[in-house]
Design a protein that fits this description.
The protein has 413 residues and is mostly helical. Helix content is 61%, strand content 2%. The protein contains 25 helices and three strands. It has a three-stranded antiparallel beta sheet with strand order 2-1-3. Strand 1 and strand 2 form a beta hairpin. Helix 13 packs parallel to helix 16. It is globular. The chain starts with 6 loop residues before the first helix and ends in a 7-residue tail after the last helix. Its EC number is 2.3.2.27. It catalyses: S-ubiquitinyl-[E2 ubiquitin-conjugating enzyme]-L-cysteine + [acceptor protein]-L-lysine = [E2 ubiquitin-conjugating enzyme]-L-cysteine + N(6)-ubiquitinyl-[acceptor protein]-L-lysine. GO terms for molecular function: ubiquitin protein ligase activity.
């Protein structure tokens, strides 16, 4: 049921007691507070979250902030929706109840206890994972119960089954890590090696979850030495790139794979390992498969790798690199344009062949449009540098007869 009904348009009036006293809209998840008044859950939660401690209707103090589901009223509302289906009213779905703190504590204790049978611990973890998937509120409740410490111990414990480790990993990546957590993982090389090996697991889900944790740890670790230690781990680049190359990869796999690769490539000393592992070919081949945000990150990674000689050579050797980068300018976003221009500047500075390829791909028009656009100043500076670099590569009639060039804001050479 979307927001609210328009009685005049639908020729149906919502019963007064079906409306939330706060939002005045049809209640989707009616709950009763300590004063006996019923509200829609989202409305009363927002009311309390802003610091209010009284009942909105009675103004009496809320002695208890427990919200009790009003199942009877919810079923009446659902019956009313069904009865008025002819007027365009859609039946509200039965809401999933938020996780109770006592249940979360019980599940965590059950999963953490080494004395429990493996199947019992695994069952507790799966139920906890289901709760975490249901809502942000559930994740907030779970996070408040020291879940990260419990899960980290389970992920890296060598005395338990791999199923427990993999299920714990799947839950752990749903929660942001503290810097303390990240240092605790990154400072132990055997833990990073374990995650690197999981990148080649038979299950694509396990591989993606491992890449997600690696990216989270790198992003949350301030120490440059620890970040270098992670990116220097054997086969870690190969594993992440294999996720991007895998034909069975899902949108989530692409997103996490490129995030992990970008995070690893931020470490200057090991960028050559990304190139050796096939990053250049994979990024160009997969560029069209990324959504906007991931395409930006992919282009940023390409620019990073083009800053080293071996990276430039690898990208220049791919026949589609220059045409794709030229085509990307002004097509995805300002940031994507900036990264594409930066990569092209590096490629054209290193190779005359890349200059000729760029000219043939129509870079002149793209750059002239770029310097006159509302794009970032850095993108414009890169475009101007490219124009100056390529001035000797233009066909003689492309500059002299170009009205766009004559009226552009590019500083004369």
């Amino acid at each position: 049921m979307p927001g609210s009904l328009e009685p005049l348009d639908l020729t149906v009036q919502i019963p007064y007691h079906f409306r939330c006293p706060i939002s005045l809209e049809l209640m989707r998840d009616p709950v009763t507070v300590s004063t006996g008044q019923t509200y829609d859950r989202s409305s009363i939660e927002s009311w309390v979250a802003t610091g209010n401690t009284t009942c909105p209707v009675t103004r009496a103090p809320l002695t208890d902030f427990t919200l009790i589901p009003n199942h009877t009223l919810r079923r009446l509302i659902q019956d009313w929706c069904v009865a008025n289906r002819a007027f365009g009213v859609e039946r509200i779905p039965t809401p999933k109840q938020p996780a109770e703190p006592s249940l979360v504590r019980s599940l965590l204790n059950q999963a953490a206890s080494a004395s429990n049978p493996s199947h019992s611990r695994l069952s507790a973890l799966r139920r906890l994972r289901g709760l975490a998937r249901d809502s942000d509120k559930n994740r907030s409740v779970i996070s408040s119960h020291n879940v990260r410490e419990v899960l980290i111990n389970l992920v890296f414990s060598s005395s338990q089954s791999s199923d427990l480790s993999h299920e714990s990993l799947a839950i752990l990546v749903m929660f942001p890590l503290t810097e303390f957590d990240c240092v605790g993982i990154s400072s132990e090389p055997e833990r990073i090696s374990y995650l690197a090996n999981l990148l080649f697991h038979s299950s694509i889900e396990v591989r993606v979850n491992s890449a997600a944790l690696i990216e989270n740890v790198i992003a949350g670790t301030r120490s440059s030495d620890l970040r270098l230690q992670i990116s220097n781990t054997e086969i870690i680049f190969e594993g992440v790139i294999e996720i991007l190359k895998n034909p069975l990869s899902s949108p989530r796999a692409f997103k996490i794979g490129i995030k992990a690769l970008f995070a690893l490539c931020l470490v200057k000393q090991t960028r050559h390992k990304a190139v050796t592992a096939g990053a250049a070919e994979t990024l160009i081949d997969r560029l069209a498969d990324f959504d906007k945000c991931d395409a930006e990150r992919a282009l940023a990674t390409i620019e990073l790798l083009c800053r080293i000689q071996v990276g430039c050579a690898a990208f220049a050797a791919h026949a589609l690199t220059v045409p794709l980068l030229v085509k990307t300018i002004l097509k995805i976003s300002d940031r994507a344009t900036e990264y594409a221009a930066g990569a092209l500047l590096a490629l054209c500075s290193a190779s005359e062949l890349s200059q000729k390829e760029a000219v043939c791909a129509g870079i002149l028009t793209q750059l002239l449009l770029l310097v006159q656009s509302d794009c970032t100043d850095r993108a414009k500076r890169k475009a101007q540098m490219l124009l100056k670099l390529l001035r000797d590569a233009w066909p003689e009639d492309s500059v002299g007869n170009s009205d766009d060039f004559l009226c552009s804001e590019v500083v004369p050479f």
